Amino acid sequence: MENKCVFCGTSFRVPEHGELIANHEVLDLTDKLTDYDTNETGTHYRFHSPDELRTALENEVDNSSEEQWVKITDGTTDRTYSIAVNHLYYRLTSPEMADIIHEGAFESHLQPIVHMSDEIVFGYEALLRTHDRRFNPGQLFEFASKAGLHSMLDQKARKSAVEAKSVAVPTGQKIFINFLPSTIYVPEFCLKHTFHLIEKYNIDPADVIFEVVETEKVSDVDHLKNIFDTYKKSGMKVALDDVGSGYSTLEMLTLLKPDFVKIDRSYITDCHKNTVNQNFLFDVIARAKGLGITTLAEGIETEEEWNWLKEAGIDLGQGYYISKPQPYKELATSLPS
């Protein structure tokens, strides 16, 4: 089924052969694809393989923008799919990653988050992993952004995390789900799919915590606050990720009032002996406590880091020292029957 909202990505596979339809002012490939004709709908360029089309577009991407759209058809029906020129090109350069996103060929691995005070599991973060492990999440999201598939990937990743919660994380324990603010254009509309899944799987909204992913660069704070407010109105919690890195300054705690703050791992590494990191951590703990925000240290890798953070008053901990992520289906087998 094709996505109804164009922002979620054009849901189609580039055919093995077909036609690219474009107006000359958008794209002129007459010197590269010689099999074409022109009518009132534009120039119809016939291509005989994805590689032929990719080669024809190679020098066009730099001069293109997301506003320059063309149409693609397999040549056997009247149905066409609209797509930006640069998005089409990147899908042609990495068809394997495009297939992974279209097919949802990934799953959630879960990493535990524990109370620092008693080491009892508070919840889990859902981390995306492809089935064949050929690509890491960073590669997949970077490609998706260039190929116009980042909204589709983000939505499907959220779906995978919700499903993992329903199978492997007991009621009362939380699931932390990453999201990209740039893929959520109108929160009340774009998040309906996710909210429907939470209801479908009979998950308590209070067990769901949405966090901004570390790679996202937020320029519109009001938009992010609107997203946070939409989650909260639906009974869910929100987390600000990587505080101390990039946009996630301490001032954001006051502006956005998240329920949780995850501290950038660069401040966790060697925190037991790095006084600069310690001063920053004490500042975060004090500000968060004053605002009623729960602190979470991620990336804990040693006993020394754990002990210092516990003594300093961090609420929750996450990292390889506690446990590595594991497939949610494996975690589910350890649940009491």
Automatic annotation (TrEMBL):
Domain (EAL) ranges: 90-337
Pfam families according to UniProt: EAL
InterPro entries linked: Cyclic-di-GMP_PDE-like, EAL_dom, EAL_sf
CDD domains: EAL
Name assigned to this protein: EAL domain-containing protein
Species this protein is from: Thalassobacillus hwangdonensis
